[in-house]
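User: Just a sanity check before I run the rest of the batch. Below are the structure tokens for the first item. I only need the designed sequence back.
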């Protein structure tokens, strides 16, 4: 082993997991340090499957997009490898717990789990990973107490054996399947948001690093389909990362990209994935054939399942996304099963398949960094991993819509929840904490009777600086909340730093109701001293803290009401 992987206090030497069996003459995997050992076992077993490290002065090729990366060997000052050291196993730790630590809760839908699981072939697996040096992306580690976001991209590029009939011929590939994976700061939950490929959005200007080290600037594009953020016009995954940030307001820390082969090889390696369909399927386009009920699929059949859309729902890409989420949930359950975690053969097959399938950014471009990521995810229970789809509506600019745009109120609510690190599943504690924090301030102003929504009268002024904020709020109040007596008063006399609601003493019940709807804190309420007339409205001025119609001003204390799939539950495709 090189110095990067041996002798570190926080790492385990992969070589130490192999033991020479004197009866067979073969090296065998030993995951339990407490297991009995043969007295003839060599003190430092050879590893015929792992190439020896290069000399310290061997020139190393710098990574460029699309090329295999090379690792620099670290040697001691005299050019010799430092003495081997071995980290002692804690007494009482089970083999399943050790393997689970390295598989890491199966984030990135087995890619990370598989890669980190079979760490014993460190060098071989490390060399399998393709690395892209993305322009303008910081290669930072995972910091305690900070949430992070990873973009999972499935490209339809026709690479790999047997994939000539899939995707677009001669295409460099699109962002065909894209999932933003948000991991909470406390590492207790994760949210996976699927972004429809036919979403019309803004693709910002981006730079890509060329093989010679120069930067190529690619112009941005307005009202473009999301899937052309990758591959088209020379765009790399970094351009897709910037597009997602433009769309969601969330910084994307890393990306992982796979092609068709990933689905086929990973499902084969794990021994198949269980799926369920409500009725028999015989899809002529994808060639998927399944009986009603539960089936185990792998290889070409698994790929056909995640590509099928004409046999489910209303035959749209949005329904295909649901199928993919159900499939990935099942894959996660299979990866965390006892059968997988206690099988060295399965873990090794998964490791090879996963690392061969992966293209990642430089920040996670080695097996050791993927192991670090796996450790960050090892404590997340499958019941706290949620899949959701970005809420959308039909594109209003198209007479016969074939594309979609973000839902004007639900999409900003979902983005705000992620920005506030609010889980779609584990939100009970956050909700209570938010209530406690504001309890005293709200005690006087926000406790008391609430008017009916139909009785709330309010004039809305836009002081936020966001074009159309007042109108979008009116649409949300009237259509979603039932506040029909609301009026758009256009721009406020001047910009406002904070949103405020001014009301008369006899309108307190209306103010409380509107505050509940909009997530207004007590400090936003400005009670007057004189009662208002019977039909006199309250005054709502939207300030710079306004994030979107329906988005709580104080930040969401609870998760938005969006359709989701939880990874611990089996769902039958309809």
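Assistant: Here's the designed sequence for the first item:
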């Amino acid at each position: 082993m090189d110095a990067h992987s041996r002798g570190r206090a926080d790492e385990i030497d992969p070589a130490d997991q192999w033991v020479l069996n004197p009866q067979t003459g073969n090296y065998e995997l030993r995951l339990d340090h407490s297991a009995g050992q043969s007295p003839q076992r060599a003190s430092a077993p050879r590893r015929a499957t792992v190439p020896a490290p290069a000399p310290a002065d061997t020139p190393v090729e710098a990574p460029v997009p699309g090329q295999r990366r090379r690792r620099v060997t670290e040697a001691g000052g005299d050019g010799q490898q430092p003495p081997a050291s071995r980290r002692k196993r804690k007494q009482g730790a089970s083999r399943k717990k050790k393997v689970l630590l390295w598989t890491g809760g199966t984030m990135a839908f087995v890619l990370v789990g598989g890669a980190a699981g079979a760490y014993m072939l460190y060098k071989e697996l490390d060399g399998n990973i393709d690395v892209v040096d993305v322009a303008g992306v910081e290669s930072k580690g995972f910091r305690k107490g900070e949430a992070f976001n990873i973009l999972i991209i499935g490209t339809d590029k026709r690479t790999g054996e047997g994939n000539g009939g899939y995707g677009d011929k001669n295409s460099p590939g699109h962002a065909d399947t894209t999932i933003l994976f948000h991991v909470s700061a406390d590492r207790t939950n994760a949210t996976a948001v699927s972004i429809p490929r036919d979403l019309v959005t803004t693709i910002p200007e981006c730079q890509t690093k060329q093989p010679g080290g120069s930067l190529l600037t690619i112009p941005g594009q307005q009202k473009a389909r999301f899937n052309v953020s990758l591959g088209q016009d020379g765009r790399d995954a970094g351009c897709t990362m910037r597009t997602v940030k433009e769309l969601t307001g969330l910084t994307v820390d890393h990306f992982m990209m796979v092609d068709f082969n990933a689905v086929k090889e990973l499902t084969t390696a794990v021994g198949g994935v269980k799926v369920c369909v409500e009725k028999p399927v015989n899809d002529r386009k994808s060639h998927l054939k399944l009986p009603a009920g539960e089936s185990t699929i792998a290889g070409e059949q698994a790929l056909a399942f995640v590509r099928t859309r004409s046999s489910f729902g209303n035959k749209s890409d949005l329904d295909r996304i649901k199928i993919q989420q159900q499939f990935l949930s099942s894959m996660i359950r299979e990866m965390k099963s006892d059968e997988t975690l206690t099988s060295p053969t399965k873990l090794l097959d998964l490791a090879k398949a996963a690392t061969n399938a992966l293209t990642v950014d430089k920040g996670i471009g080695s097996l050791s960094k993927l192991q670090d990521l796996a450790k960050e995810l090892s404590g997340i229970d499958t019941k706290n991993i949620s899949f959701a789809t970005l809420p959308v509506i039909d594109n209003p600019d198209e007479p016969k819509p074939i594309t979609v745009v973000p839902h004007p109120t639900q999409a900003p609510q979902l983005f705000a929840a992620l920005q506030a690190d609010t889980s779609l599943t584990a939100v009970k504690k956050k909700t209570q904490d938010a209530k406690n924090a504001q309890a005293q301030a709200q005690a006087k102003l926000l406790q008391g009777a609430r008017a009916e929504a139909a009785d709330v009268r309010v004039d809305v002024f836009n002081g936020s600086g966001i074009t159309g904020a007042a109108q979008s709020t009116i649409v949300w109040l009237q259509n979603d909340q039932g506040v029909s007596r609301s009026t758009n008063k256009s721009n406020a006399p001047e910009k406002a730093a904070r949103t405020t609601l001014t009301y008369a003493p006899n309108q307190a019940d209306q103010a409380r109701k509107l505050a509940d709807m909009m997530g207004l804190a007590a400090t936003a309420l400005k009670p007057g001293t004189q009662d208002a007339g019977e039909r006199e409205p309250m005054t709502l001025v939207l300030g710079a803290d306004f994030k979107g119609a329906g988005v709580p001003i104080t930040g969401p204390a609870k998760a938005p009401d969006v359709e989701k799939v939880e990874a611990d539950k089996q769902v039958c495709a309809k």
